[in-house]
Amino acid sequence: MTHASASRSFEVSPPAAFAWVTLVLLGGVLPLGIIGVAWLTHQQMHGVSFALIVIPCVLVALLLLMRRRSVRLHDGMLDVRAALYRKRVAVSELDLQRARIVDLAERTELRPWLKSNAVSMPGFHAGHFRLRGDFGKAFFLLTQRERVLWLPLRDSKTQLLLSLERPQSLLDALAAS
Question: How many domains does the chain divide into?
Fold first, then answer.
């Protein structure tokens, strides 16, 4: 393998606009609105100045974290970065015979169910989740539910689900490595 082909990145599908809007509404507008209503009704306002500084800072941090999305194949390792989370898996651990591009509208058992350690909002799921039934656990970088690359591991209890612009190109690269 040449040095140029030893490392390859795969474009992650961007989150839909409603994911960004949801984050801004729930992480910024709603808390600031509650503070504004309390201030207008002359409620006790201890710590308001602190909240007015912290809420926008937290919102900016969350927006920046939602932009941290990457999938890279490097020297036999698949490296996935999603918000605060990172998953590294050796290609040899993947069960490529079972790997598929799936639509989560049809494969409901592969949808994120219970968060173990993750960020989840409509249109964006990143991190570790439990799946329904006997499907075990999964690491998600999910920005859309159609054309999701499902990569089960050989242990049959762990999988990766990735939203990529061209999921077949990663599947082909994994098979070739």
Answer: 2
